[in-house]
Structure formats: C-alpha cells, structure tokens
Amino acid sequence: MKATAQLRHLNIAPRKVNMVAKLVRGMEVGRAEAHLRLLTKRAALPVQKLMLSALANARHNLHAALGSTFFVQEIVVTQAPMLKRRFPRSRGRSDVKRKRRSHIRITLDDRN
Length: 112
Description:
3-stranded antiparallel β-sheet, 3 helices
C-alpha cells in the first residue's frame, strides 16, 4: 500500500532540501518525524508536514489501520522554475539574482 504527497514551489533551494531528505529516506515515519522535529534546518518543517500529509493520505484513501507502520520509501527533490530578479551593480549595471525553488514528492509504503 503506497501513499504519496507532493509539495510544489517551495521557496528553499533544492540542495538545501535534499540535505534534509537524505536524513529521513528509508526511516519509519515516527522515527523520521522525531528527527525532523529536532533538526535546526529551515527545510525540516515543510518536509515533516509533507510526510504527515502522506500518512494522512494513506489512512484516508487506502483505509490503512492506525497500528500499521509506514516508512519513507522514496523522497525526491527536484528544482522548480527559478525566480530571476535584478539587483544593481557598479557603473549602472545589474546582475541577476536567481531565487531557486523546490518540488518535493514523498512516497510512503507499509512495512507489512
């Protein structure tokens, strides 16, 4: 029984979100939630909320029992479209500031 959830256009760079995603990949949901709650990275809260959303999807859509143990089977972080902003430089020139964003997709599976 697989359950998925996705978060699109998160305003955090993909390499920063991927550092958090590597920590919880393959863990059971309860243990991963405890790790994310104590983590001081900014991307930890959106990943935690997404994981709990996927767990709620599993319980609602797949009618999974409350006692069943789910684990993070797959968590994929990809780059969303970049926001490009200009900022001034010397001699009347300008540079491009690239604000990178992320898409996250998480898949939970039942251990049984």
